[in-house]
Amino acid sequence: MAVILPAMPNLKAFAGVARAPFLLLPVTLIAAGAAAAFYGGAFSWWSTLLALIGLVALHMAVNIFNEWSDMRTGIDLATERTPFSGGSGTLPAGGMSLRAALLFGIACSAVGLAVGLYFVGRVGPVLLPIMVAGAICVLIYTEVLARLGIGEVAAGLGLGGLPVVGAALVNSGEIGAAAVAAGVPASFMTFNLLLLNEFPDEAADRAGGRKNLVLLFGRRPAAWIWAAAAAATPLSIVVAVAMSVLPPLALAACLPSLLLAAPMRWVVSDPMQPVPIPAMGANVTWNLATNTVLAIALVGAALL
After folding, report:
1. CATH number at residue 241
2. Residue 66: inside a domain, yes or no?
3. Between helices 162-172 and 98-123, what is the axis angle to 10°?
4. Other residues' Cβ atoms within 10 Å of the Cβ of residue 4
């Protein structure tokens, strides 16, 4: 693939390296965490909005650093892009220079750090472990964690369970059981969001030095790991309801798992074949819908 010399970045380029279409995820995570706090009797619009700004900035930073690294290592030049994997193509197309992308990622990280420090000062040191873990997942995910075979777990925590718990914490000042229970399915889903999207990039990731679950275990075992995490998502909600940690209304959040029929068919039939685009789309929709329905259920249960 020919590389075009970068032009002056425009809004489209900034949105491209930030992977703007995928920034709905932090919205649903903050919604789930804030709803868990509301269910426990505490809520602040200001804290929720500020937490959303911080998490969106950190998610943008992860995406930008990933694009920067993939271009620098040549992965972006070898990958076959889909609507859900393979990067935005902004840097290979010359929409932005590597230096500009790096500076953009650092700026987004700084915004997330500033929000985190504000909340540490307001809530106290109980937030510090979550903040440190989140910072690690952002700053060294692409260059370290994704090359150690733990990238999926880091993503599941950094853009799954920890933001849900953190959003509840900055609203209520404590880590409640409902927040932890809402964070568990979020972790499984973000883990799966990354894992399924790694299948199309298998060859490029191998050449670029990545060590993800697809490369470590092979396509078929990795596909069954995805299926196990998919099944664990509604199961974790059912268990939390059975333990009276989540209200019965939260069982509605199991319904979006029906969307996984397409990727499950791919797992059972032949995961050696390419992942169908509808299956990848269903994986994304399932993630967003489950977090959203759970948030609505928690708010509804608090109001009833």
Report:
1. 1.10.600
2. yes
3. 40
4. 11
